[in-house]
Structure formats: C-alpha cells, structure tokens
Write a structure and sequence with these properties.
By secondary structure, the chain is of the alpha/beta class. The protein folds into two domains: 7-265, 3-Layer(aba) Sandwich (Aldehyde Dehydrogenase, Chain A, domain 1); 270-457, Aldehyde Dehydrogenase, Chain A, domain 2 (3-Layer(aba) Sandwich). The protein has helices at 7-15, 53-68, 76-92, 94-105, 109-130, 168-181, 196-208, 222-231, 244-255, 279-291, 308-323, 343-358, 409-416, 432-441; strands at 19-21, 24-26, 33-37, 44-49, 138-139, 147-155, 158-162, 185-189, 215-217, 237-241, 260-264, 270-273, 303-307, 362-365, 381-384, 400-406, 424-428, 446-449, 468-469, 482-490. Strands 14-15-16-13-12-17-18 form a seven-stranded mixed β-sheet, sandwiched between helices. Strand 17, helix 14 and strand 18 form a beta-alpha-beta unit. The mean pLDDT is 97. Residues 25-487 form the Aldehyde dehydrogenase domain. The active site is at 264. InterPro entries: Ald_DH/histidinol_DH (IPR016161), Ald_DH_C (IPR016163), Ald_DH_CS_CYS (IPR016160), Ald_DH_CS_GLU (IPR029510), Ald_DH_N (IPR016162), Aldehyde_DH_dom (IPR015590).
Length: 492
Amino acid sequence: MIINVPRQIDDFLSRVGALYIGGRFVEAADGERFPVLNPATKGVLAWVARAKAPDVDQAVLAAERALQGSWGRTSPDERGRLLFRLAELIEEHAEALAILEALNVGKPYIEARTADVPLAAQHFRYFAGWSTKWSGEVLPVSLPGNYLAYTRREPLGVIGAITPWNFPLLIASWKLAPALAAGNTVVLKPSELTPLTALYLAELIEAAGFPKGVVNIVPGYGPEAGEALVLHPRVAKISFTGSPEVGKAILKKSADQLKRVTLELGGKSPNIVLEDADPQKVVRGVLFAAFFNQGEVCAAGSRLFVPKSYLDTFMNTFLDAVKNIRQGHPLDPATQMGPLISEEHRARVLNYIRKGKEEGAELLLGGEPNPSLTGFYVKPTVFLAEDRHTIAQEEIFGPVLTILPYEKLDEAVQRANATRYGLAAGVWSEDLKQAIRVAHSLKAGTVWVNGYLLLDATSPWGGFKESGLGREMGHYALEHYTEVKSVWLNLS
C-alpha cells in the first residue's frame, strides 16, 4: 500500500520554488522556473526558480555580508547550538523529508527514512560538537629570544557547495555541517533534478534561527548557476560531489584564482569474496552493495570478484535473491528498488547494458526496463564479465552488477586496483588477518570488511586516484574549511 502524502507535503510543494538568498525566499532575477519531476510517475512535482549568474552573485554577496557581520560575531558555542537545533528540526520533520526524498529521487521511502534523514541529522549534531573544539596550538619555537608563537584556525570565507541528485539531503549535510561549524558561510547549489529537500532544509535553517545570509540555496543548472559559483571571485572554496568530468572542469576553472577545491567524483568499486566467506553474509551484502538506491551510488559495489571454486554455489542463491528484489513505487513500504532519476539517465544505463552484450559479457539477469511500471525503471541486472569489458571499467550508476571470477587472491587484488577510480571497496572473509591484508592492499579511500556502505559522521569519506581530492566527514573535513594562521609575539 502506497503511503498517503500528508497535507504538509502538498502545502510545501504548492509554495516551494523560490531561491533562498539572504534569509528570504525570492524569485530568480529573470523570473524563470524549471520543472522538477517525480521519476516514478514522470509527472511534475513542482516548478522551481532557476538561478543564474545574477542570482548566484546576490547569494554570494549575502553570504559575505553575514560573514563580515552577525555570523562573524557569533561565538563557537552559539554556532554549535544552532547546528544542534537544526539536527533536532531534521528529526522532527523526518517523515516529511523522507517522503520528499522518495518522491523526488525515486529511492524507496524506507531507505530515506532509515538512512538518509537520520544520517543527515547525525552530521549536523556531530559537527555542532566540533564548533568549540577545533583549535590552534602554542608552538615550541627555537629561535633565540623570548617569543610566543601560536596558530589560529580561521574560516575560509564563502563556501560554494555543489551537491548531486542521488543523496541530496545527506550530501548537503556533509558540506554544510563542517563549513558552518568552522565559521564559514555557504551558497549551496543542489542538483536541478532534486532540489526539494534542500529547499525544505532552508525552511528549517530559518526556523533554527541562523542569521540571515549564513546559508543561501540556489537551485539551477550546472552551466548557469554552478559555473557562476565556481568562477565567482568572492567564493573561497568549492566543495563538489559529482562526475569526474565535471570535477576536473571545476578544478581547471578554479586554478586561476587558486580557489580551494575538494572533489568526490565517483567510483567503480570492487567487492572481493574470499573462499572462506560466509555465503549468507555475502549474498545479503552483495545485494545491498550493488542495488541500494537503485545502484545510483558513487561507492556501489558494482564489480564483484568471486573465486572460481565458489562461483557455482554462490551464483544460484544470488540470482534467486536478485529475482526477488521488489521494484515498485517509492512510497510503498514493500518497495526495495525504485526508478532511476530520469529518462536521460535510464537511456545511459541501458546503453551500457547494450554495450556489455555487444562486447561479449554474459547477461545473466535483467537488462531491460520494467514494462509493468510507469516511471524510469530498469530491472536489476547481472553480468558475468571480464575486466576488458566497458561495464567492468566505467561507472554506470545504475542497477548493473558485473561478476568477475578469479583464480588467486593476489590476482583479484591486482585486478581490483586496475581502474582509474579508488573510492571504496569491500572484502568478505571469516579470516580477519587475511581480510585486513587485502584491505591494506586496496587503493581505496574506504574499505569495508564483511559489510558494505557503512557510514558514520566520524568516519572520513573520499577517494584515491580519480575518485577525488580531500575528505568529507570526520574531523578530517574541518581541515578543508579553515586556514591556518601563524602568529608571533616578541616578548623581549
């Protein structure tokens, strides 16, 4: 049974659409709007103001005024209190946020309710605690004389945060929470495909009592709003999550200003099964790793390395489990997999599936749209493939798993590392010594052993190689939102 959309959401969708700049909801300078779709029905959820360069400029100026004014005078303790209050409000509005996320992204409501929303609240609460704990130090200098030397951690300034469409609320929290805890102000550009929870968050930021201009939210298209944010001379740093191609372009465009940049750019993550792995744990874990959030996950375990000796036993059980994945409307609590985000993205995923078949990979299951459903659905798909196949090398960002048999473990590790990515990886084994050895050999920012997609605000997130620069989450994130200033006092 599909969950009824409460009047609260209908009311929000009827009024949503304005940009949030300087503590006010305003129309775009040219009055233009764009449609936001429900991927499960292909219908329009809302029409949202389309930010362009003049709107981004106003948002940056508002953020700068707040930095030089009320926010710059706000104590660390008060910053922490406001972040704590925002976490509380997210929890109080968890049902509405989860429904909005399901409607706009297409992810199952149950995933948004149990993962996205609680983790977003956790991030604001975690970094609230850091507001009073991120400090400099007194330095034991050796220069002859009588000197006091110490360091200060100072905010960078105005942060430009650009978030993707697959986890819009959660990844916004990854960027907003540490930036605000460190004393910065933010201009957030959510994806034009999924701006709704960011705009709902703007209302919660208002209710929490943040000073005007501390957070500004400007939905719009990348070449218009995103590029204007990247090129703006008063933006001190860009934090971007998205594709490697866009991330590289941002890095190049930021170079002339030596603008600080952190990037999280996706992956083609290996999931390695060892011969002694518990079959039941593996089947459950691989299903989650490959098909959570429709496979629209930068860290999806989309390359599964299985010992040839293990393959037959594993395959029968696993394929039966994949067949039982229930696709349906995101607001049906029984749904385990929703639609992809758009028709364009579905076509991209289906093109990869076609390419896999053309290159000789063996299609074991799925590989087509679900004709019984209206939206942008693709059936969960499993290939038996080789490393040379495109589907085993490039990020598909959909419900497509490639199974890659191997003979020896060292060979599997070498093959697992043989891509341009290095975001995450999984290892499955009952021999923890062996598992740790493999984990240390993998070129990835995060390695999970006997689990997958385990996230916590305390644990840093980021990639090796072309999976990005810098880290989000944990105290490591704060390093990317502050400058270190050295101060000397001559006491002679």
